[in-house]
Amino acid sequence: MSLMALMAALNPIQTVKASESLPHGLLVVTIDCLPAWMLSAWGATWVATPSMDTLAARGIVLDRLITPSLDPRSSIEDLFGGFGKGSLFDIAAAAGWRTAILSDDPATPDRVALASGCGQSIDVWEVPAVATRSPAARNSETNLARLFSQAREVVVAGNHQCVWCHAGSLGVSWDAPDIFRTSYIDAEDPPPPPGAGVPYFTVDASTNPDLVMGVRQVFAGQLTLLDFWLGRLLESVQSTAANGKHWGVLVMGVRGLPLGLHGTVGCLPACTDAAGKNQWSGLPYGERVHVPAVFVDPVGWMACQRYGGLVVPADLGATLQDLIAAPRDALSRRGRSLTTLLESSDVPARDRVVVMAQDGAALITPGWHLLLERPEAAQPAQLFAKPDDFFELSDVANRCPGITEEMQAALESAWQGDLERAWQTPLSPEVIGGLTPF
Q1: What average pLDDT score do residues 198-215 get?
Q2: Which of 126, 191, 312, 330 has the fewest CB within 10 Å, making it most exposed?
């Protein structure tokens, strides 16, 4: 008996198929600078994120969500299918839903204006994140508190059926009160870095390892603060279930954050380059492109489940669209809908994700992660075995020359301007490798 058949047998009162149950509402929370490896549901058991853990128990954890770009704006546009006609907001409006968008990123309203121009019912709340020098004195004075409190008020008011909340302050200020960060400091540890500024520095042989650890401890405190306010927002959605209204919920990262695994800590300030050129620099290691995601369907069929297949933001976007509208032609969309996961494990898994960045590119399959710097760098490709080498620390390119050459040939076509070929070139079973998604 399959896992899904067993679940159905244990829950005989659920006679409605999950994909045929229209949710009463949809909450989407996107978070910038949120790497998967720093959350307990992805293995970081030393970081306290009880709200995220509770959400994971209610839904399906996507183990390998990969962003094809280091630019968070690209991930967001892939998730929503753009901001014009045919986007998630357009579909929500066609279903008679009113949309609320709350963001601490000042660029968000400009993008939403594109959607609003299509005559859609969209209300926007701007809650700008403030770069502070010192941690906040109180929890309620932080950037995350202001954003999520406003989002909670919108959900409780009940005037919107589609709510998107975007948090970008993890890349602006680590303003969690001292009690959040000190909870991760042991008595024998040196003091953590002071202030609330988001750090950026390179790591080499001369770097004090205590500094890198201190940054991770401060960031862990910021994640616990994020988890607290996320939990308050999720509670407001949960309360609607008491009135017979069941919402679909998606919480996901849109970009990771380097924390010293590959020579860099933190991210460049947003004001470094108005065009964003320097802001998205770096090589696409997993710490930058492997982000977390938890999806809770309105029926609750996939509680306490994990999906290990490769997923991109566009797949989640297609899934959300199918939740609130009849499935459309998959070829007309950027992603593959995962709605069949709500009823069975029979979902075609991706055999690769191609990541293009300013300084390099990556070809990621279920069994491998190949990293290739720009051609002018004249550096050999790096190859890491998945899922064993979670942090890409052991380069095995010289031990697996056949796999390296095949993956490199596919990836080089992207540098030559043929990105489609990199996504479509047939790969051998040895290159795809890996385990089954479940």
Answers
A1: 93
A2: 191
